[in-house]
Inverse folding.
């Protein structure tokens, strides 16, 4: 059974027991070590996006705790993953997040490895009295598979196939064709909270009306249906083109609704007193534009044209999707400190084969609000995959960097969560039914650690 609870499940009453849990998992080094061996070493993990390793010679690196994995496309077209550790004396071979290479050359004593991880040459090989058994000294391989336009790795082989792991969500996510999207933004922020505080944050909308005023003006968060699935995955379906029913409805479209209307060529002024009709009008306008301009909306329901579906892929990935774009957010633990983590955010955009009234996804407004709801034109002739921008949460607090208004607000808050959790005055969480996706995630984590 793929779905434990149907998508029409209301967030008001949890379909699973709210058991709560102690703070230990956020602050304890022992717990962190258990996660290292029983979670990170055994789970299918999103290592990156497939478009970054489409061509022979392209590679990406994926850091998870103390581990670093290289994923490279060989000259034979095959994708392989291997530990990023020279088999001579352990040196990390590459430090770049991605690139194109013909060989991996260790910067220490110049051992050379192929894109397939094979050890190809060793300077002064005759001086090794124990010989240089090249077959034993290849880079240690790691399982790798592509699915849904993403690259998955698993450090230790196990019985659960990637297909079975993804089965509950594969069809729903697959419809969004992440494999046809291109990266338009790639950010990594280092943060002062446990990696799970970030996942928890993106597993409930309870905080949204308070922390994110902008959402009241474009989303229905109060009644968003949710789904809980096998293997710890969850989903929430958020209506867009509306205002939050938890707040009074205005007579005029909100600024965010106006932006969405203008993006599809509709006049916001025409919706004075008809704000409740905007979502349907946006859907109709998108269908008409799709016919005129060949936009790829055929496989989507009307609801999907305005709504944001957010899938939480166990353990550490959040995929927020619309037909036009996707955000891939990924929370990663620090190598040693349970109170530190990294949050990655990759923006993917599906460029279309014709011009549209939408803006350039690279413009400053898109950076602040995000790419969702914007129609995309053709891939710009000068499109280049942007390099990764790495920074700290202080850069966000100081306004030097942004990951969109909403995520900046989350980041600004989450350091305070970790501080409070570390206090003697805090013992365990006390979750509402609306936070049952948080509970479901932690139930899956508990099951993982118990099995490990
Ligand atoms: S550690 Fe890599 S060649 Fe010596
Ligand atoms: Fe948030």
């Amino acid at each position: 059974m793929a779905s434990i609870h149907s998508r029409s499940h209301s967030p008001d009453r949890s379909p699973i027991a709210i058991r709560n849990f102690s703070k230990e998992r956020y602050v304890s080094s022992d717990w962190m070590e258990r996660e290292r061996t029983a979670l990170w070493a055994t789970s299918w993990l999103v290592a990156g996006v497939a478009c970054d390793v489409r061509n022979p010679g392209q590679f990406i690196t994926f850091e998870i705790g103390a581990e670093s994995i290289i994923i490279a496309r060989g000259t034979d077209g095959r994708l392989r993953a291997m530990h990023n550790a020279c088999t001579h004396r352990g040196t990390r071979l590459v430090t770049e997040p991605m690139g194109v290479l013909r060989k991996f050359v260790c910067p220490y004593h110049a051992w050379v490895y192929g894109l397939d991880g094979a050890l190809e040459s060793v300077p002064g090989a005759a001086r090794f009295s124990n010989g240089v058994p090249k077959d034993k000294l290849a880079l240690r391989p790691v399982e790798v598979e592509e699915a849904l336009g993403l690259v998955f790795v698993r450090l230790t082989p196990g019985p659960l196939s990637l297909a079975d792991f993804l089965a509950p969500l594969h069809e729903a996510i697959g419809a969004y064709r992440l494999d046809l999207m291109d990266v338009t933004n790639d950010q990594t922020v280092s943060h002062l909270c446990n990696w799970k505080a970030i996942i928890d944050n993106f597993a409930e909308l309870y905080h949204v009306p308070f922390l994110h005023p902008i959402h009241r003006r474009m989303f229905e968060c109060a009644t968003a249906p949710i789904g809980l699935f096998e293997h710890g995955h969850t989903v929430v379906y958020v209506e867009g083109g509306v205002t939050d029913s938890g707040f009074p409805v205005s007579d005029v479209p909100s600024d965010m609704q106006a932006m969405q209307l203008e993006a599809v060529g509709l006049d916001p002024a025409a919706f004075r007193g008809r704000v409740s009709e905007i979502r349907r009008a946006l859907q109709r306008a998108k269908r008409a534009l799709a016919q005129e301009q060949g936009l790829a909306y055929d496989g989507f329901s009307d609801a999907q044209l305005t709504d944001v579906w957010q899938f939480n892929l166990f353990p550490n990935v959040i995929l927020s999707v619309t037909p036009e774009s996707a955000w891939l957010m990924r929370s990663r633990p620090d190598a040693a400190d349970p109170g530190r983590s990294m949050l990655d955010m990759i923006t993917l955009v599906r460029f279309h084969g014709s011009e549209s009234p939408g803006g350039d996804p690279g413009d400053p407004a898109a950076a602040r609000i995000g790419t969702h709801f914007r129609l995309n034109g053709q891939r710009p002739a000068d499109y280049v995959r942007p390099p990764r921008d790495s920074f700290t949460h202080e850069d966000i607090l100081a306004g030097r960097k942004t990951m969109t208004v909403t995520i900046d607000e989350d980041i600004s808050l989450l350091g305070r969560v970790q501080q409070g959790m570390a206090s003697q005055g805090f013992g365990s969480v006390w979750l509402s039914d609306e936070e049952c996706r948080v509970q479901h995630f932690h139930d899956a984590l508990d099951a993982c650690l118990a099995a490990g």
